[in-house]
Amino acid sequence: YFGIGYLFSISIRKCEWDCRIRYKEISVHFSIVFFWLSALIYSRLNLFEAERILQGRSNAIENAQISQFENGV
Q1: Model confidence pLDDT, tens digit, residues 47-66
Q2: Distance between CA atoms of 60 and 57, rounded to whole angstroms?
Q3: How confident is the model at residue 3 (pLDDT cuts 50, 70, 90)?
Q4: What 3 state SS string does the chain have?
Q5: Where does the sequence pass through the membrane (predicted)?
Q6: Per-residue pLDDT tens for 32-49?
Q7: End-to-end CA distance of the chain
Q8: How far is CA 7 from CA 4, 14, 19, in A?
């Protein structure tokens, strides 16, 4: 009887330990995934911002060229 209880308590402790390790692994994986996702989103936002700035510059250059052409420069 005591032997079974002892084995049972060891198995419960082992499961608890495994679950803790798994929880740590999952939290580490989650933090890595979250970091990568946020970095990806941030870089995408920066790309959009850069694209918008470049688009604005090319529009400004185009407008300047058109106005120069109209003014006969």
Answers
A1: 777 777 777 777 777 777 77
A2: 5
A3: low
A4: CHHHHHHHHHHHHHHHHHHHHHHHHHHHHHHHHHHHHHHHHHHHHHHHHHHHHHHHHHHHHHHHHHHHHHHCC
A5: 26-45
A6: 788 888 888 887 777 777
A7: 103
A8: 5, 10, 18
> What does the CA dihedral 37, 38, 44, 46 come to, rounded to 10 degrees?
-160
Residue at token pair 């120069």 = 68
CA dihedral over 7, 11, 12, 14, signed as positive or negative: positive
Q: What angle do CA 17, 28, 46 make, to 5 degrees?
A: 170
